[in-house]
Amino acid sequence: GARAKDVLEKQTPQVAQYQPDVILLSAGANDATHWTNLKDFESTLQATIKKLKEMNPGVKIVVTGCPDMGSVARFPWPARQIAGFRTKQLNEIFEKVVEENELIFARIAAETGPSFRDDPTLFASDKFHPNARGYKLWSEVITKAINSGLEQK
To answer: Whole-structure pTM over 0.85, yes or no?
Structure first.
């Protein structure tokens, strides 16, 4: 149930003790379903990145963006279409923030959304979260982004 605000306030401070070389920032799904204000979402995302960079200026930050919430099997129509629209709005913010901050973007919605839409067996029994096969799809996109981003930077 964590949203971007929770990442900033509760999770980001915990990162300082580890001083990682790479951070995976994954947020947005719960912000999409809870209709987090878009301006608040963007400012929270910017604040999180600023804080992470202050803790470790050399850190590489990989951002997944919001998964394709329009693919969620648990949502009936028209909620599924509304969730898909909300995903698009949040991912436009992610795209902007990633570019402005020179981060690495793992586009899980664009690259895995069609698979989730076509194959509802990629969801866990709650029909909301991915199952092991669904997470494997995400991890392939994330790994590709990390490898690509580390080669470039």
So the answer is: yes
